[in-house]
Specification:
404 residues, alpha+beta, D-amino Acid Aminotransferase, Chain A, domain 1, D-amino Acid Aminotransferase, Chain A, domain 2, 2 domains, 10-stranded antiparallel beta sheet, 9-stranded mixed beta sheet, 8 helices, 19 strands, 20% helix, BCAT_family, Aminotrans_IV, aminotransferase, signal
């Protein structure tokens, strides 16, 4: 695991020097101080109990919450982090206790959809430490998304420190080790300055909110679900914003998603908008096809697909196992060759897909059938990534960042 010391050292030399704290009158601000280099020094993992943990972060799981009953839904916590970009630079970050934010009625996020977000998690380990999973990748991705809709870059070091600090301030809400839960972080960047006319704002707001969540599916890994191949709607256009995690991408899925659920399909699979012959991705998850006989892990390669950090992690683990990983076009007809199909993303890690159904213009259906139970490769990949996140096996790829 890596310490945040190096990241903070870079931060001090970054463009964030010379912050001027913005003025806020509508919310309570918590004064924080930057830890010294001694405090941030990486501590070795130990088998100490939570009560005797030598970290200054505090003990996770001490909030009065029903840890065994958490689902994936909003719950109030102590604070969120807020930072404003104005006059060409990022201002000093603040911890804010109020869950409300005043937004100008002319904000570009409201009128022109100038907004993007991320999702990542922090996990409690048995030694009492708390660790973020791959926040550097989320930092890179939010900047790619922001660039696509003309928003300012957040230095990677600044992003990681923001995640570190908001977790530290809300450490009591990190589900305890063994509960199966995690603290879900939702970084959000949006245009908060007014523009009436299509152009980028002059002011932006970056927030990181946190929510304690349980396993997306009770027990950690659900039985396979049945999916619907969508033909009446498209998720993203070629050369559009499908590869960016912008807010509007998810609004486009609301009608088809709700319609599919009414038909008994809890998940939708979208095809390429140009030809409707190529697999792209599920509503909020990347697509993975598993060919166990040939030890292949196959996922679409498309400029309209959001690059999933979970997918990237699973690809690495699949290669570690000796599987061949292919990122390429996947014809719809090729679905019949897969032993297992997986939807993957931060919230759930993996969702096994039992079947995919497609209706033609006359209402006739064709069905691609996969496993009736969780596939062996799906379960193995899921168990490996969760064990890394929980600190139960060696983190050979240095994906965990210890909160300090």
């Amino acid at each position: 695991m890596r310490s945040l010391t190096a990241a903070l050292a870079l931060l001090l030399a970054s463009s964030c020097q010379g912050f001027v704290a913005p003025s806020h009158n509508s919310h309570q601000i918590i004064t924080t101080t930057t830890p010294s280099s001694t405090q941030l020094k990486k501590q070795p993992l130990s088998r100490l109990s939570v009560a005797t943990d030598i970290n200054a972060v505090g003990a996770p799981g001490t909030a009065d919450l029903p840890w065994s009953e958490l689902g994936f839904e909003f719950r109030p916590t102590k604070s969120h982090l807020r930072m404003t970009y104005r006059d060409g630079k990022w201002q000093e970050p603040e911890m804010v206790e109020s869950p409300y934010i005043n937004v100008h009625i002319g904000a570009t996020a409201l009128h022109y959809g100038q907004a993007c977000f991320e999702g990542l998690k922090a996990f409690a380990h048995e030694d009492g430490s708390v660790n973020l999973f791959r926040p550097d990748e989320n930092a890179k991705r939010i900047n790619r998304s922001g660039h696509r809709v003309m928003m300012p870059e957040i230095p990677v070091e600044t992003f990681i420190k923001a995640c570190n600090d908001v977790v530290k301030d809300n450490v009591a809400y990190v589900p305890p080790y063994g509960s199966g839960g995690a603290l879900y972080l939702r970084p959000l960047l949006f245009g908060s300055g007014p523009r009436i006319g299509l152009q980028p704002a002059e002011e932006y707001t970056f927030i990181v909110m946190v929510i304690p969540v349980g396993d997306y599916y009770k027990g950690g890994l659900a039985a396979p679900v049945n999916g619907l191949i969508v033909d009446d709607y498209d998720r993203a256009a070629p050369k559009g914003v499908g590869a960016a995690k912008v807010a509007g991408n998810y609004a486009a899925d609301l009608i088809p998603n709700m319609a599919a659920k009414k038909k008994g399909f809890p998940i939708c699979l979208y095809l390429d908008a140009a030809t409707h012959t190529l697999v792209e991705e599920f509503s909020t998850s990347n697509f993975i096809g598993i060919d166990n006989e040939n030890k292949k892990y196959i996922t679409p390669k498309s400029d309209s697909v959001l690059p999933s950090i979970t997918n990237k992690s699973l690809q690495t683990l699949a290669k570690d196992e000796g599987m061949t990983v292919e990122q390429r076009d996947i014809e719809v007809a090729e679905l019949s060759t897969f032993d297992e199909v997986i939807a993957c993303g931060t919230a759930v890690v993996v969702t096994p897909i039992g079947s995919l159904t497609r209706f033609d213009g006359n209402g006739e259906e064709s069905k691609y059938q996969f496993t009736e139970d969780v596939g062996e490769t799906t379960r193995r990949l899921y168990d490996t990534v969760r064990n890394i996140q929980n600190g139960e096996i060696e983190d050979t790829h240095n994906w965990n960042y210890k909160v300090e």
